[in-house]
Amino acid sequence: MIDALSLLDDLIHKARAAGADAADAVLFDSASLSLAQRLGEPEKLERSESGDLGLRVLVGTRQAMVSSSDRSAAALAELVERAVAMARVVPEDPYCGLAAAEDLAHDWPDLDLDDPAEPTAATLIEQARIGEEAARAVAGVTNSEGAEASWGRTRVALVGSNGFSGGYGISRRSLSVVVLAGTGTGMERDYDFSTAVYAEDLDDAAELGRRAGERAVRRLNPRKVTTRKVPVVFDPRVARGLVGHLVGAIAGPSITRGTSFLKDKLNQPIFGPTIQIIDDPHVSRGLRSRPFDGEGVANRRRALIADGVLTTWLLDLRSARQLGLRSTGHASRGTASPPSPSPGNLYLEPGARTPQALIGEIQDGFYITEMMGSAVNGVTGDYSRGAAGFWIENGELAYPVSGVTVAGNLKDMFLALEPANDLERKFGMDAPTVRIEGMTVAGL
Known about the structure:
Blueprint: H1 2-17, E1 22-38, E2 41-59, E3 62-68, H2 73-87, H3 121-136, E4 141-160, E5 165-181, E6 188-196, H4 205-218, E7 228-234, H5 236-250, H6 252-257, E8 277-280, E9 302-306, E10 309-310, H7 317-323, E11 331-332, E12 340-341, E13 345-348, H8 355-360, E14 364-376, E15 382-393, E16 396-409, H9 410-416, E17 417-419, E18 429-430, E19 434-442
Parallel strand pairs: 7-14, 13-18
Antiparallel strand pairs: 1-2, 1-4, 2-3, 4-5, 5-6, 7-19, 8-9, 8-13, 9-10, 11-12, 14-15, 15-16, 16-19, 17-19
Helix pairs in contact: 3-4
């Protein structure tokens, strides 16, 4: 990490010497190993290593970004020359610029984001084998689309002429299994997967495979339903997508362009009074954790929704300046494009009732386990998506359903949302089971 920071610091000095008024640079060094198998036979075993760095320079209020995977002295000299030349001719942007000293992160927690152990290919092969065999052992499973196991590690470094210098490492382990049940035109497909920073936090491979197989079998012989307005219950796998729609609606660029259905809702209730949605970039071993944001700005835990009230936008420096506000520490970035806001570990806090209680009082309703396609209008909040799952009759899951569309408006859906008490924070953007009253289920 010290070598990476030194390399970027030298690049910044060269950019300043070439005429840049300010500059920052980011570097990513990555390695990965992935294995895919199907029906017990390996189909892919790949290892890759890559390194990329990006330089952003500012000449007055003009900004340019260039990237390179070549770190030779000649290549970096050309990189600096090209970046400064570009910055001199692009249009002015009064909102671009680096962070002020008072906004920078000066110290940050150790978030334990990098598992030092690198698995062997044999380890990944064994994990995939166990997962796929467990899924195929479930009665009714007739075929497999395969199992995949992977590992990855990325080292991140960021240096700016404003005095910021920092870096950290991120590791990932993942396992997924996809199988089919039934035969002919009646086949159904389902899956399960797990991702973690540390290998020890991954779901057990056999248990994961068994869940994938059971989910596929449960979907056999789906029925159609007639169009009606009913309570809808979202399984946690799909409920977290509702949180994602909130993120898109409160991201700084959507607000500055006036293209969000929530553009006038800051500090107003948009959920029921018991709803809390938390963004926390400092979760130990969190999948979306980061000690500072992509512009070196200090970040922290925030309640985006507190007692149902929208408390903040998600802002990077540019969108904050456009709105006359301060960055909320949500900038993320790559090497060839400017920063943009994105959340850390985001979750809808659990409610008081069990999923069984939410379902048990529904006489006629729909439990969604999968969603397909997307027709969500970020300007109006209109929501329409294909869905599959199970019909609820007399408080129980009665039979599988597919080929329907669920429709509503996110403003109404947010206000009517009730979370269950089964939150598991395992994807980086999470929600418990969620019930929403009065949605339209369009079928036959």
